[in-house]
Design a protein that fits this description.
Layout lengths: L25 H17 L7 H24 L2 E4 L2 E4 L1 H19 L4 H5 L33
Antiparallel strand pairs: 1-2
Helix pairs in contact: 1-2, 2-3
């Protein structure tokens, strides 16, 4: 199956260089250093996205930290005569899920990069064939009728 890859829309206000916040863990800072050049090159990261980037890096840091715990302690432990799951496995799974969702938001997955960008320069409503176009006094979206 072949198609045309959609063009990624760049933002004129994109952040192209930003140091990691000092409060990030070492693993989270390492992730920041890894992904910031990717996002900078694409020119899609704005001030509104910095929180998502921070949260993504925190989640990836937790994934790595919990992996070290699991490597050292194991995925299960003996509790009396029962085996129990190491809580680090649940923490890691939760962090992986958060990281996956945030990676998609930031365009860091193959699928998210293949989706068309949201455009702010959309055609005016009067050019939209699906618009109500002022029919019955209705002006614009879900806001209701305008007097």
């Amino acid at each position: 199956m072949r198609g045309v890859k959609p063009e990624m829309k760049t933002d004129p206000e994109a952040i192209t260089d930003l140091d990691p916040p000092g409060w990030l863990s070492g693993d989270a800072k390492d992730e920041w250093v890894r992904v910031m050049p990717i996002l900078s090159k694409r020119r899609i990261l704005t001030a509104a996205d910095v929180g998502s980037l921070e949260n993504f890096c925190v989640a990836m840091g937790q994934v790595r930290e919990m992996e070290r715990v699991l490597q050292e302690k194991g995925a299960v432990y003996q509790a009396g005569d029962m085996l129990k799951r190491n809580p680090a496995a649940s923490i890691q799974a939760d962090a992986m899920n958060r990281a996956r969702l945030l990676a998609a938001e930031l365009g860091l997955t193959p699928v998210s990069r293949s989706r068309p960008a949201i455009r702010d320069d959309a055609a005016p409503e009067e050019d939209d064939p699906l618009s109500l176009g002022g029919l019955f006094g209705w002006q614009g979206g879900l806001g209701g009728a305008v007097q």
